[in-house]
């Protein structure tokens, strides 16, 4: 049986690299793309020079400054990042129609019909460098999971290949926290069971993993044995539409939170209309001043798109689940379980909260 040829291409420090490309003064310096500490910002991307200080994406900007006092903060230019991403995707489609973007800076490609996946990956990396003056790392293997793991091996500007005969040994030597799809909490639970490497994960049967981790245990069993049948989907369905807002000063007044939440819901409505989507599941995210985060959701039978439908439910979720004496630094709203809007038709809803 012929194996599939799957690439995972991941741009290197994408946002930060664009800023260093476009601004000579940022080159060879630790820079962070994101909000400044005095604006309660967070790191959207960090250059490799900044990463040497332990700075990484999603880190609070105040922590980034503590780790590197001379780090340079740069305001994001998302329109520029989207333009460069479009250039890169056009390059991908010169080699295959089976391109599944995961974000602006990474994608899976199925190049099974081509003679050499390795030669294709090299050609794509060179085209990206020539066109954008940026570097990309690529992983080549027989499925999505292995290609994703391979692209991380030699960053930046790397190329790593996991051949079919090498897959089990590669996984066996992998620390459990390095597995794509195994987060910190799951890794801790696995270590409590004595699973610290891929080799130890391979010793567990599928039933045992389901017993300890539920249905996702089946996925852990399959990736431990180099099995991943997911197709590269060029028509990947968007799972949710949302918006969120960080506040320069913590909000402790429920009225101020309600006002802010209303503005966020209005933004979600705009994005849903643009995407021609409606959704059944509304989620409210609350991040407190100490960075603890909670999310609460409610699913309804009739899909929603309009702010007049979403806001009462969002406000009810907020007030029912808000802690006493709150200090809130961020609020977010997302609409999931999406369906087509069918020409923008919608129904007004009455959504009392029990």
From TrEMBL:
Binds 2 magnesium ions per subunit. Residues 6-183 form the UmuC domain. It is an enzyme of class 2 (transferase). One of its GO terms (molecular function) is DNA-directed DNA polymerase activity. Keywords: Cytoplasm, DNA damage, DNA repair, DNA replication, DNA-binding, DNA-directed DNA polymerase, Magnesium, Metal-binding, Mutator protein, Nucleotidyltransferase, Oxidoreductase, Transferase. It is found in: Cytoplasm. Monomer. Poorly processive, error-prone DNA polymerase involved in untargeted mutagenesis. Copies undamaged DNA at stalled replication forks, which arise in vivo from mismatched or misaligned primer ends. These misaligned primers can be extended by PolIV. Exhibits no 3'-5' exonuclease (proofreading) activity. May be involved in translesional synthesis, in conjunction with the beta clamp from PolIII. HAMAP family: DNApol_IV (MF_01113). NCBIfam families: PRK02406.1. This is DNA polymerase IV. The gene is dinB.
């Amino acid at each position: 049986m012929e194996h599939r040829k799957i690439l995972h291409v991941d741009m290197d420090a994408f946002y930060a690299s664009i800023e260093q490309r476009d601004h000579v003064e940022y080159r060879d310096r630790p820079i962070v793309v994101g909000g400044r500490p005095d604006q309660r910002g967070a790191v959207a991307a960090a250059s490799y020079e900044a990463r040497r200080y332990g700075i990484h994406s999603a880190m609070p900007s105040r922590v980034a400054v503590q780790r590197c006092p001379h780090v340079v903060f740069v305001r994001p230019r998302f329109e520029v990042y989207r333009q460069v991403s479009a250039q890169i995707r056009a390059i991908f489609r010169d080699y295959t129609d089976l391109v599944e973007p995961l974000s602006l800076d990474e994608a899976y490609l199925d190049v099974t019909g081509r003679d050499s996946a390795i030669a294709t990956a090299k050609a794509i990396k060179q085209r990206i460098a020539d066109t954008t003056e940026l570097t990309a790392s690529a992983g080549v293997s027989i499925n999505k999971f292995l290609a994703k793991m391979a692209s991380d091996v030699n960053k930046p500007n790397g190329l790593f290949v996991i051949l079919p005969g090498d897959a089990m040994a590669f996984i066996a030597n992998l620390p459990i926290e390095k597995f794509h799809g195994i987060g910190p909490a799951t890794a801790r639970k696995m270590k409590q069971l004595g699973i610290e490497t891929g080799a130890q994960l391979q010793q567990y049967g599928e039933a045992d993993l389901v017993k300890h981790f539920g249905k996702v245990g089946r996925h852990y069993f399959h990736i431990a044995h180099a099995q991943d049948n997911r197709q590269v989907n060029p028509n990947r369905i968007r799972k949710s539409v949302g918006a969120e807002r960080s506040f320069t000063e913590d909000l402790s007044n429920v009225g101020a939170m309600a006002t802010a939440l209303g503005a966020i819901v209005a933004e979600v409505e705009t994005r849903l209309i643009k995407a021609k989507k409606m959704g059944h599941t509304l989620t409210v995210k609350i991040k407190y001043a100490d960075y603890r985060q909670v999310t609460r959701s409610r699913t309804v039978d009739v899909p929603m798109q309009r702010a007049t439908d979403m806001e009462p439910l969002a406000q009810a979720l907020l007030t029912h689940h808000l802690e006493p004496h709150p200090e809130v630094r961020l609020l977010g709203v997302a609409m999931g379980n999406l369906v087509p809007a069918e020409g923008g038709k919608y129904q007004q809803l009455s959504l009392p909260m029990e």
